Amino acid sequence: MTWIKLNVGGQMFETQLGTLTRYPSSTLARMFKSDMMHNDPVPEELYYLDTDPQCFQHILSWLRYGTMSIPHTMDKRLVMMAAKHLGLDDMAKQVEKESSGTKGAMTDWLRLNVGGTIFETSRATLTSHPTSSLARMFEPNSNLPPATTTSDGVFLIDACPAGFSVVLNWLRYRHLMLGIVKAADVMPLADYFGLEELQGLLAKHMAKEDEASSKLVGCIEESVDRLEDVLQQVQCEINGVQDKMEDIKIEVAGIATGLEDLWRIKNEVANIASIMK
């Protein structure tokens, strides 16, 4: 049993010679055949292989066990190209087959759980803005998939559902449909998902809202000033009425005094008349 030490792209590997030569017709096997090297491989010697170490790790597992488990975070195309480079055509075909088998079609109908609210839409809608991070999450064979997927295939996204509904409708119709949602609440999502065009629309809408708010504040301030003027005028009128009431009181008092004098004169006349009788 001969063990071989390999330096693959700066990372050390050790395996049996029989593993590397399992497929005799491959380029990798021919590298270690004695008739090509003119002598048997030396166990103590370090052999250098210019291949991506992460890809080679999956290639070595396939040579050992005849199966592979490539994580979804890794680009399978790199593994396929590395396998072809080493002449492992069977593995390259298997990787290509698995990639095409798991590849999502643009017409796929997807379910998303966004902050506890379920949304359903097509993959084409989610990828309709190609440069966005949202599109990269859901494009076929994505290297940036959503962090978590449930057992029944629902994608979990930690975001505000109200704001996401605005984002989704914009992706569908390319119209800003806010409803009761504030543009300021949608802006963080547009920024997070890299939707520059939507960010521009939201910024314009927020600028219009600020302008309208400023006009409203100006109108209110102007109305308050006018109301103050009216109140001042009313106060002046009230003060004038109070002054007139004082004059009326004085006049009434004068009248009362005159009536009292008249009553006295009447009494005096009655007395004189009684004396003359």
What do you see in this structure?
The chain has 277 residues and is an alpha/beta fold. Strands 5-4-7-6 form a 4-stranded mixed sheet. Strands 2-1-3 form a 3-stranded mixed sheet. α9 crosses α10. The longest helix has 81 residues. The chain is rod-shaped and about 170 Å long. About 2% of the residues have low confidence.
The Cα radius of gyration reads 46 Å
Q: State the assembly state of the protein chains.
A: single chain
Major sheet characteristics: 4 strands, mixed
Strand order, largest beta sheet: 5-4-7-6
Helix content: 55-70%
SSE string: EEHHHEHHHEEHHEEHHH
Percent of residues in beta strands?
5-15%
**How many helices?**
11
Uncertain runs with pLDDT below 50, 5 residues or more? 35-39
What is the number of E strands?
Answer: 7
- The average pLDDT score comes to 83
The geometry reads as rod-shaped
Helix-strand category:
alpha/beta
Distance between the termini: 171 Å
Write a concise synopsis of the structure shown.
With 277 residues, the protein is an alpha/beta fold.
List keywords for this structure.
277 residues; alpha/beta; four-stranded mixed sheet; 11 helices
Topology:
Layout: E1 3-8, E2 11-16, H1 17-20, H2 27-31, H3 34-37, E3 46-49, H4 53-65, H5 76-85, H6 89-102, E4 109-114, E5 117-122, H7 123-126, H8 133-138, E6 148-149, E7 155-157, H9 161-173, H10 183-192, H11 196-276
